[in-house]
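Morning run. Coffee first, then this:
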Amino acid sequence: MTTEPLPRFTVIGHRGARGHAPENTLLSIDTAIRLGADWVEFDVQHHDGELWLMHDLTLDRTTNGRGPLRAHAADSLRRLDAGGGEIIPTLPEALDLIEQRVGVNVELKSWNGCAAAVAACLRDYIADGWPADRFLVSSFHLPELWEFKQLLPEVPLGALYCGVPLDWAGLAAELGAQTLNISGEFVDARLIADAHERGLRLYVYTVNDEAELRALRQMGVDGVFSDYPERALAVAGPAR
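And here it is:
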């Protein structure tokens, strides 16, 4: 009796390699690449003419700053410590560091202009030789994702959910997304099957426990976001 090989399993470093270095910093991104991640994911906010790698709308948790990011001018943000002496990087700085070594998942974390600014930035990198399919732009804010699609349709989209949609993967497919990215607590066989039937890959966030990683792999999800990419790589197996 032979066993069918599992499909390719994509390992995405969450906010770089958040388990090893300050999240959304150049050090975290470089660490994820050195650990062997297939892709890196980070959050982007548009403010004061720049695209900042920052998850929270406030500075308090991840920097030595205080209050909303939008309350600070760009020169003030550049002086902040994002952990271990790291700065808050911009999207071009992150892409220049990556240099096409891995795929890049940009999560739109703000609205009212973020989609347009990211589209303009990625358009320049594509013109300089980056393949469009080495980018994945995702967001929980689906109207912002729809706006991005109108501006740069050649770049794949990832629809983010924190719960199971009533129409399963239907809205993500209607949006024209290539991936459905969902919290591990809401994954089940029916959702995986529905996503695959609609031609979407299903990625799960944020998975750090090795037993959970193995279980999701066996269930047939297509990949995971992990703070510890090396743990996910250990269960990915030769089908990668």
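The mean pLDDT is 95. Good start to the day.
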